[in-house]
Write a structure and sequence with these properties.
This is Polysaccharide pyruvyl transferase domain-containing protein. The protein has 315 residues and is α/β, with parallel strands linked by helices. The chain folds into two domains: 106 residues, no CATH class; 156 residues, Glycogen Phosphorylase B (Rossmann fold), CATH 3.40.50.2000. 43% of the residues lie in helices and 13% in strands. The two termini are 12 Å apart. 36% of the residues are buried.
Length: 315
């Protein structure tokens, strides 16, 4: 029953005026996001939190840093090592925070190297989304997600498109339908490219995360480029093959015991390697689903312990 005010890291700046308003009206300031601990040149703090570092001390409500991560693309990386400005700001926000958590071991280590302590490791909260049923869903299908709007993915776009089309054709021969699950509007163009050569391709593009989880949960398995495709698949207890372009995907797939089903997007990525992963995942999908269900219970215990601490701060 507690109202929530949303602050967009893309277009809003936390000014001194907004801080004063927040101090009067809010119970806590909760900051969360998968890649916030990354360089952002036009941010006053140097990272994905639009607030001048010198203003942090003006914040009177408890600060909670929730499941934050750091981005690092394998090639053509636009983020790079954290700048001195960003590091100093991240250290300061952690010093002032009532609670701090990260979503992977790599980010945990980044904070440690900067001298930060007291932060804990929890899972991406999307891992625990409950599915919302959709009527008339297909009986036998594979969920896929491809993107090409990152610099590294633009470089390999032609190869990714070829692999996507050939995988769809291969899966069709095995009796599968294929549903392209779009997590945002930027992915529509890649769907259209695949559909030009594979007109049977189906599409889901609704702003409803719980319905997405339901689609993933009913798929035999998924193939995803976007990390949140992998995460939503895990939320639905569905095995996934990750086509990786960023360190965060290595971290996530390793954390759920699926490292061997991860393929790095580079010049060595081949259709044959992807098909080998498909053969293996079809054989072991039942066991993987059971393992996911057990693992999610353990992750949830840790998550709920952190959430209880957050709730305890709210006045």
């Amino acid at each position: 029953d507690i109202p929530i005010a949303n602050f967009s890291i893309k277009c809003d700046i936390l000014t001194i005026e907004k801080i004063k308003q927040m101090n009067e009206e809010a119970s806590i300031l909760l900051i969360g996001g998968s890649g916030l601990y990354s360089n952002l040149a036009n941010s006053p703090s140097g990272w994905y939190f639009h607030c001048e570092t010198k203003l942090f001390k003006e914040i009177r409500v408890p600060i909670v840093l929730y499941a934050i991560g750091a981005m690092n693309n394998f090639e053509y990386d636009v983020y790079g090592e954290l700048s001195s400005k960003a590091r100093q700001s991240i250290v300061e926000i952690n010093k002032l925070s009532a609670l701090s958590s990260v979503r992977d071991i790599r980010t945990f280590g980044i904070l440690q190297k900067m001298g930060v302590s007291g932060h804990c490791l929890i899972a991406d909260p999307a891992c625990f989304l409950e599915p919302s049923p959709i009527k008339n869903l297909l009986k036998k299908f594979v969920a896929i997600n491809f993107i090409d709007y990152k610099p590294i993915l633009k470089h390999y776009s032609a190869g990714l498109l070829y692999i996507a089309y050939m995988l769809c054709a291969s899966l069709k021969k095995r009796g599968y339908s294929i549903i392209f699950v779009a997590h945002d509007c930027l992915e529509h163009s890649f769907y259209l490219k695949i559909k030009e050569n594979f007109p049977e391709l189906l599409y889901y593009n609704e702003d409803n995360p719980k319905e997405m989880v339901y689609i993933y949960s009913k798929a035999d398995f998924s193939i995803g480029v976007r990390c949140h495709s992998n995460i939503f698949s895990f939320a639905g207890n569905t095995p996934m093959i990750s086509l990786m372009y960023d360190e965060k995907q290595i971290e996530f797939m390793s954390s759920i015991g699926m490292g061997k089903y991860a393929l790095r997007i580079d010049k060595n990525l081949t259709l044959e390697n992807a098909v080998d992963k498909i053969d293996n995942i079809i054989e072991k999908k039942g066991r993987i689903r059971k393992d996911f269900a057990e693992l999610k219970k353990r992750f949830l215990d840790t998550e709920l312990n952190f959430v209880k601490k957050v709730v305890g701060l709210i006045k």
